[in-house]
Design a protein that fits this description.
Blueprint: H1 2-8, H2 12-65, E1 75-77, E2 81-85, E3 98-103, E4 113-126, E5 129-143
Antiparallel strand pairs: 1-2, 2-4, 3-4, 4-5
Length: 148
């Protein structure tokens, strides 16, 4: 009778070993898929960050040229990034910087001067990612009546 029990359990250890191997294989496949997905996310984040910094560079270009409101042409920023004024659709025809008119000058400012506001919209691109930034700026006093 004891010999029959041992014979009926033959191969049980093999089945358990195969099941453990299957579970470990599924865990390994899941880890590979997770790693691949996380790598893709971090790559997209890097490209998006590069596009944001390219748009930020466009803002700096616009600030440096105020009160001149001419469009910022497509400008290479590094090897694979560029910026321009306007939205992503304006890449072939960048838009002018906007004048938002006058704002009250600080107390004590000479009455022959006026203070102005401008809006700078830029887009940065890096590979296939684009980011837009809009900035409104109060600019230094200008002689009253100027065309800026």
């Amino acid at each position: 009778m004891g010999g029959d029990i041992l014979r009926s359990e033959r191969g049980f250890a093999l089945i358990i070993a195969l099941l453990i191997l299957l579970v470990l294989t599924l865990i390994g496949i899941s880890a590979i898929n997770t790693t691949t997905f996380e790598t893709s996310i971090s790559g997209n984040e890097r490209v998006g960050t590069d596009a944001f910094y390219a748009a930020e560079a466009g803002i700096q270009i616009g600030l440096n040229q105020l009160p001149d409101r001419t469009p910022i042409p497509v400008t290479a920023i590094g090897k694979d990034s560029s910026c321009w004024s306007g939205s992503p659709q304006d890449k072939s025809s960048p838009q002018s910087l906007q004048s938002l008119g006058l704002y009250p000058c600080p107390p004590g400012t000479d009455t022959s001067l006026e203070c102005k506001r401008f809006q700078i919209d830029t887009t940065g691109a890096s590979f296939k990612a684009t980011k837009e930034i809009e900035v409104q700026v109060r600019s230094s006093p200008f002689p009253a009546g100027t065309g800026y």
